[in-house]
């Protein structure tokens, strides 16, 4: 994904080294799994946004940026590991998930441990109390997003507004934080900081909508994890919400037993009735982000931001 | 427990209010469980130590002390909730555990959420980067203690040294942090800060050894949770370690199926062969702590510290 941007690619290698250096455990089995999770296809999207936005201010401190970017990915990894325990997912990034390999005990504590690593990296890189405060409230928002998700299952139903509020917390908040932290750490103007925040938010929303689409449209091989998982775990997401709106009979079908054949049939219905509207929604968020990116000071970073924002919308895994 | 010390009791009421104020969720079901967990028999031991040690410095800021004390309890609660998911415990503090009530999904995220509340309270109360750094590395040490625990089960065995290192991380570290933070936030001398650290460590060690003893000696009604749990979850703790040393045949018996009758028999053997040595160990840590407490500037706080340190050793739940 990053090979087209050699400078960014090199910086992301630094970020990966910081991540590896901070996952040192006496328990080598867990360390190895954490390393595998980091190396295998972690796209480092959030760190990349932090690094790109860190070019907009006068205070250039690459080692600090790498650490802070690593913190974003580590927070992300922590939530992924806990998500996989919760959803009982067998695969993540093509690798057997932590809890499948080492049990939920190791997986829960490994996630907790990563929260502490995140906490420490933030303390090491924050320039002031506002920086740490922003991280603390963002982390809180992310977890509240996850907690809210629980309130909606096939029994209780969910509105589009509920969905948007949920992904605003669980996904957009971290993209928003990554972009804003880049501008803050480099001492960019307040105008650019606020713009970074909005761009991060919109990219995050588009990213999650697309993730939820891919769960219905991609094969397990491409996703490197099972598809149709949202149906099996009775999680409402936007393609299903739109499908129910466009084809109300679906609601009854959701109450039937989730045999493999029934899941396959439901996936087909969602593909037919829900995916197009969801793609429109993702596209609208992407357009909004691109309009704001166009307002950034022009240069390499703005150009790369534009390209990767477009690329994220047409990704397939 | 605190009614004998009215001043401390009042301050702990403040701490409880800070905790309640910081557990505000849209998901009311989870909020209610968190509140019940806080109100029902949370002994607030760690906050109490922070508050008592905060009397030794010249900078008196009670609202800040309450917040920081609340942070210690919240970090403790977060680890409790995750421990209960991991051990599949049905009861905690006489209340149905979070995961039993609302599933592991809610419980894992609720614990994660509490980490973020802790993180934020620390940021609000820390006087400088050293304070936050101390918290970050302590939190990391606590989680590493939990992760290390996993390496030892009935199959792999464990030495007394392994056990001590494990509880040093998972329990003593938080007592140590609570005591040290009290002296730091009040601007006490470095000598007192270091003494607070050692006292906290030794009290924490004694506390955990006693907890592990109670798992074998107390009834479910007194503990407000099932006893013999460590056996059922194949967790080595010190009474069992001493029992195996004193009665090596036990090792073979541990490999048999854990039927209720067999667990009862094993509990009996551990009571007979392991508890006395474990009590000696707890007593040695308590004596060490009391010797250091005697070196503190004399006054109400030192006297209360002495009394509660003694009381913790003879507690029954």
Automatic annotation (TrEMBL), chains A, B:
GO terms for biological process: isoprenoid biosynthetic process. InterPro entries: Isoprenoid_synthase_dom_sf (IPR008949), Polyprenyl_synt (IPR000092), Polyprenyl_synt_CS (IPR033749). The keyword Magnesium applies. Keywords: Magnesium, Metal-binding, Transferase. One of its GO terms (molecular function) is metal ion binding. SUPFAM superfamilies: Terpenoid synthases. Gene3D superfamilies: Farnesyl Diphosphate Synthase. Its cofactor is Mg(2+). The keyword Protein biosynthesis does not apply. It holds the Pfam family polyprenyl_synt. Belongs to the FPP/GGPP synthase family. This is Heptaprenyl diphosphate synthase component II. It comes from Agrilactobacillus composti DSM 18527 = JCM 14202.
């Amino acid at each position: 994904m990053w090979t087209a941007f050699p400078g960014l690619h090199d910086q992301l290698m630094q970020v990966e080294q910081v991540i590896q250096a901070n996952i040192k455990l006496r328990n080598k089995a867990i360390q190895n799994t954490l390393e595998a999770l980091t190396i295998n296809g972690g796209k480092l999207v959030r760190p990349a946004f932090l690094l790109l936005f860190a070019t907009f201010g006068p205070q250039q401190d690459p080692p600090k940026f790498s650490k802070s970017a690593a913190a974003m990915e580590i927070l992300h990894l922590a939530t992924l590991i806990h998500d996989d325990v919760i959803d009982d997912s067998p695969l993540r990034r093509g690798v057997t998930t932590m809890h499948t390999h080492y049990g939920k005990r190791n997986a829960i504590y490994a996630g907790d441990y990563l929260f502490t690593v995140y906490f420490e990296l933030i303390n090491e890189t924050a320039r002031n109390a506002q920086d740490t405060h922003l991280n603390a409230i963002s982390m809180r928002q992310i977890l509240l997003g996850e907690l809210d998700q629980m309130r909606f299952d096939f029994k209780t139903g969910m509105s589009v507004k509920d969905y948007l509020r949920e992904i605003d917390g669980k996904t957009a908040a971290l993209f928003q934080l990554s972009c804003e932290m880049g501008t803050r750490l480099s001492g960019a103007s307040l105008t650019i900081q606020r713009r970074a925040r909005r761009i991060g938010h919109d990219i995050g929303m588009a990213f999650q909508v697309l993730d939820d689409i891919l769960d219905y449209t991609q094969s397990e091989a491409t996703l490197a994890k099972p598809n149709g998982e949202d149906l099996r775990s009775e999680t409402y997401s936007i393609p299903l919400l739109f499908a129910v709106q466009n084809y109300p009979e679906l609601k009854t079908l959701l109450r039937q037993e989730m045999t493999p054949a029934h899941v396959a049939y439901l996936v087909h219905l969602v593909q037919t009735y829900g995916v197009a509207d969801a793609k429109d929604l993702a596209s609208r968020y992407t357009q909004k982000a691109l309009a704001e990116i166009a307002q950034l000071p022009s240069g390499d970073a703005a150009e790369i931001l534009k390209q990767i924002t477009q690329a994220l919308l047409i990704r397939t895994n």
